[in-house]
Design a protein that fits this description.
2 domains; seven-stranded mixed beta sheet; three-stranded antiparallel beta sheet; 9 helices
Length: 276
């Protein structure tokens, strides 16, 4: 693409994102630029459109097309017991702290299709804490939230998930937590009882409760510095004092505005405790 073509493509993307803010209140302008460009190209392909201007016209005139757009640019890479070492450290470092509370509120921000939400529910059940826990699982993508509510995942992935469950310190067989048909695994209803799934946009929505744990893993890497600071401030405002914040292993609080409000419980798994 020529320099003028690149500039025109960038202008169309900025026009699209600005119009989406005005029309729907969703602000994607401070997402990492390389990532947002790549995902918009994916949406163009799935919508069978030739250019961003045509995509702008479609999403502004059709709210269902806008939902597809959000789904297309949302990061939905997830799996059960993703990074098993994180769950091992959570059991060892965080569970004893949570056991001191009469009631536990946990926020899973950016939960995608829910695999990691059910993973933490299984862990808390095995640690005897689930009955006094309320998990709030949120994502900006309404389509992913509806999938997460179902608790239905491909049976073909259960062998992989079972191995990760064992590596995470699981004390049972993962199969006891779901029923299976030929294609799908349906997680048992008792795991859903204490989970509230809801749409929430980290970019522009506010805090909605105080939590003892906030999980926001592998989300910040898709934001630029300005947006990262804004989201970290939101997560900080949502934590009780001495609450636990867990982010992705490739993410960090270092050099952030809230860095000195936390002590690090585990440097590898990026588990922090709020101290001020």
């Amino acid at each position: 693409m020529t320099g003028s073509g690149e500039r025109e493509g960038e202008r169309q993307i900025q026009s699209l994102l600005s119009c989406i803010v005005e029309r729907y209140g969703f602000d994607f302008r401070n997402y990492a630029q390389a990532s947002i460009r790549r995902r918009i190209q994916g949406v163009l392909s799935s919508e069978r459109l030739d250019n961003v201007a045509a995509l702008e016209e479609r999403v502004l005139s059709d709210p269902i097309a806008f939902q597809r757009f959000v789904h297309g640019i949302s990061v939905s890479v997830t799996s059960m017991f993703r990074d098993p070492s994180f769950y091992l450290k959570f059991r060892r470092l965080v569970v004893p702290m949570l056991a001191t509370y009469p009631f536990i509120r946990l926020w899973h921000a950016g939960c995608a299709t829910g695999e990691e939400v059910y993973s933490i529910a299984v862990l808390l059940h095995e640690e005897g804490l689930y009955d006094r826990t309320r998990i709030y699982a949120t994502d900006l993508d309404a389509i992913s939230i509806e999938q997460a509510k179902q608790g239905i995942f491909p049976l073909s992935r259960m062998r992989e998930y079972s191995a990760a469950y064992v590596d995470s310190g699981g004390s049972e067989s993962l199969s006891r937590y779901y029923t299976a048909d030929r294609e799908n695994a349906l997680f048992r209803s008792f795991l859903k009882e204490n989970i509230v799934f809801a749409q929430h946009n980290l970019v522009c929505d506010s805090s909605f409760n105080e939590f003892h744990v906030v999980l926001c893993r592998n989300v910040l890497i898709y934001f630029n510095n300005e947006l990262r600071e804004r989201v970290l401030a939101l997560l900080h405002d949502s934590l009780v004092n001495f609450g636990v914040l867990a982010i992705g292993s490739k993410e960090s609080l270092r050099f952030s505005n809230i860095e000195f409000c936390y002590t690090q419980l585990d440097s590898t798994e990026k588990i922090y405790k709020r101290v001020m």
